[in-house]
Amino acid sequence: MNRKSNLTKPILFLCLLAAIISCKTSSRQDSQKKMAVVISTLNNPWFVVLGESAAQRARELGYEAHIFDSQNNSAKEAEHFDNIIAMGYDAILFNPTDADGSVLNVQRAKTADIPTFCMDREINSRDAAASQLLSDNFTGCVKLGEYFVKQMRQKGRYVEILGLVGDNNTWNRSNGFHSVVDEFPELVMVAQQSADFDRNKAMDVMETIMQANPEIDAVFCGNDAMALGAYQAVLAAGKANRIKVFGFDGSDDAIRAIADGKMAATVMQYPVLMARKSAELADQLIRGDANFSHKMPVEVDLVTPDNISKYLPQTTRP
Which segment of the chain is annotated as a signal peptide (predicted)? Predict the structure, then answer.
């Protein structure tokens, strides 16, 4: 009786030990299967596509994926990173709110052994993020600037509506545009103002600018949401046939606006490509392969009435 009892004890101990190890292994495996998707704002359909595409690809790769909306608020973004680090996510697919202000958040995640992959927007750090996958904003706006000059016949008065002043995309687009347009002295910029990439703000900004400058021939906006807001202001002022509107993003609404003659041009970005590739790079790193570039540009395309049929949804193509 005693011998049987003595034999049972080590067996029970080994079973208990195996159960504990199994629980720890299971817990560790669960934590390795989570990706956080942090987006600057979900108030813009373009960023909704970016966020949902990143989350979808992460799930296809076998990870849990959760989307966090920073609402264009750096404090909200920092709060998200606090929660993500505390919850032990394995990677962060990140669309920053600020090129400088977001660096600390990414660095904190790196210190916690959580790699961050920037999508569409960059941060001003060489080594904080594992990778940064970005549209070639400067080159895209060089193309747009060249088309702008032709449409304006090298002269006229125009307005520029900027995005977020703390975002490098804002200045890469603006600088690309001006690298071409500033070579033509008869093209005069009468106003330059930020609208934070927001459609409603851009409408208000354009209304105010038109009151002070009634003779305007064109408006260049740093994204399509602002371009559509500016168009609403132009339409309300009865100047839709006179003021040409140029944007950047290639959103569905902008594509339809070009097809309908409401916008002059935009630049097509590829958010789905950037989002899916970022998730794939994160998975690659998690699996132990860090053989990829720290910074990768993604080519963009100029969209005008001349080639709009290529970009219309299949159901609306002529």
Answer: none
pLDDT classification of 208: cutoffs 50, 70, 90: very high
Tally of residues, the chain = 318
Q: Give the DSSP letter of residue 265.
A: B
- Tens of pLDDT, residues 134-160: 999 999 999 999 999 999 999 999 999
Does residue 162 come out as left (phi exceeding 0), alpha (psi in the -120 to 50 range) or beta? beta
Contact 247, 197 (CB under 8 A): no
The burial class, CB within 10 Å (0-12 / 13-18 / 19+), for 1 is: exposed
> Please, which residues have CB within 8 angstroms of residue 178's CB and are 6 or more apart in sequence?
145
Whether 315 has a pLDDT exceeding 80, the answer reads: no
Q: Report the pLDDT value the prediction gives residue 10, as an integer from 0 to 100.
A: 47
Half-sphere exposure of 154 toward its Cβ, with a 13 Å CA cutoff?
3
Q: How many CB atoms lie within 10 A of CB 283?
A: 19
Answer for the pair 98, 41: CB distance below 8 angstroms, yes or no: no
Each residue of 57-70: pLDDT tens digit? 999 999 999 999 99
Please check whether residue 102 is in contact with residue 74, taking contact to mean a CB–CB distance below 8 angstroms.
yes
**H/E run at residue 153:** none
Specify the pairing of strand 301-303 against strand 266-268.
antiparallel
Nearest alpha-carbon partner for 39 in 61, 65, 64, 71: 71
**pLDDT given for residue 24 in this prediction:** 43
